[in-house]
Structure formats: C-alpha cells, structure tokens
User: What shape does this take?
Amino acid sequence: MKYGVFVIFFFIFFLGCNQPKEESRVDFSDVELFEVIRSGDKRFDLSGIVHFNSSIIAVADKPWNKFLYKINPDTTLNKATTEEIFSLTYEFKSDFEAVDYADSVFYIADERSSEIYTYDLRKAEMRVLNLGWPQNIVRGNWGNAGLEAIAVDKDNGRLFIGKERDEAALFVSSISGGVTEPINMEDFPEGFDVSDMKYENHHLYLLNRGNYRVIKWDTSTGKIIDYFDYSFVMNANGEKLYSSSRYPMAEGLSLTSDHIWLALDNNGDSFNNDNPWIEMSKFAGENPLLVRFNRPEGF
Assistant: This one.
C-alpha cells in the first residue's frame, strides 16, 4: 500500500539520529504492511526470516513451532499466509530466534539453549554446530537476552553471532568452529541491541530494534557506514504497532536487491489503532506483521 505525502511527512519528522557518519538516501514512497495469518489456534510468534529461492522462510519462537515456515505475502490483500515447509526433528524445548541460509543449509539460532543448529536440505537432517566457544563466555547466563541473531558469510566460511542485549555482543566463527572473543563495538550507538542480522558484500546489516534502525557495518574496518531509520512506521507519533508492547517488536530481517523486510513478533499483543499505519491498514486482532520498505540506493 502506498502512502505518498503521509510517508514523506513522517520521514521528515522522524529522521534525526546522531549515528552514523552518513545517512541513507531513503525513498519512502513505497511501504507495505502484511498481516501474517496464523494456521491453527496456537500463537505464532514470528521471529527470524531469510529469503530462499524468491520465498520468505521463517522461524517462530514457541516450542510447538517445529518447522521452517514459508511466508506468502499477498500485495492485493496486504495479508500473508504461513505454510509448514520443512519439518525440524529434535528433542529439546526450542526458542528459535534467527535463521539464515547458504549452500543448501539453513542455520537456526536457538535462544533457550544458546546453540546454533543446521538443517541440511540434501539430507533432511538437523544437527547442532559445535562452534568451540571460549571458556570465559558463559552462555548459560544469557537467558532471554541471549542468542538472537546469526548471519552467514559463505564466501569466507564465517558465521556472525549476535547476543541481543544487556550487554549486546557480536562474535564471529568459522562455520567449522572457533568462536572469537567479542568483536570491538566502540563505534556502535549507546544502548545498542541486535535482534537479527544478514551479511552482504563485506557488510553486516544489523537490526537494531531499540533504535528503530538497520545498521550497515563494514566488517573490514569495524565502522558503521550507514543506517536505515524505520521509526516513522514502527513508532509513528510515538505509537508502536502493538498496543501493549513495552519495547519495539522487530525481530526478523531479510534483504533483497530492492527491498528491506522486517518481521514483527507481537508476543500475543493486539494491534494499536493509535498508530496511523495500523489505523490506515484497518488491521485488527493479534497477528504478527511483515513490513516491506524500498531499499535505498547504495544501502
């Protein structure tokens, strides 16, 4: 759905940040919201997303969500349906928060166990990655502030790992193992958190949920070089998209050449009609959302 003058107004009003060194050249003339329709009666708390063969693949963070799901957006209805596409077989109580893909393998982050799992399409097999964490990194203390984001750099055989908050931390490992000490984050904004990330062309794109931004970070220099501010939708007029949310809900990030996609885990909250985007969309109920933005040139 295209919002024209409304979008331009909110872009001007809300773009005012002290990071990074350059602002993204953003065209907000095309923003679309998709209500994600759950299949079944149980809550579907949409979490990590990744594009795969022109489709959106997702994980959800409740123990009964034992699938990789295909999300099917319909631009005519601004709805998206969910489809159970790959069944995950395991015997633990899961809390899947992030997913990425490379070379026929999905990488899945589980916050409850602080482990990363793979699902190999060729074998239809799920395995835990033995990454060899440093002994001084006590992941058992992370709890609900823990493993929230992963990103695969397939060209260099690397895996980036994000601890969400309190304090946020970034790690890197070879896919075969060997997690480093935390990456230096002195260039990151105060109160930085990370709820998802993706890797492209020597850059890590980090979903900084608390600041309503996607940060573009140069992995070679360790510097933030750009960001995308989406607060004009997610916090329009100071109103979040969900009525009872204590914090922003964006938990999934995926990128295509033309678009930035964000997935919102609503934690069972209902839509907030005081947010003008929800009011215009006429959404009602307690479903998650996908939000699609035009990707700025050069971002």
Notes: Residues 2-28 have pLDDT under 50 and may be disordered. The CA atoms of residues 168 and 193 lie 5 Å apart. Helices lie at 4-14, 231-234, 276-281. The domain at 4-294 is CATH 2.110.10.10 (Hemopexin).
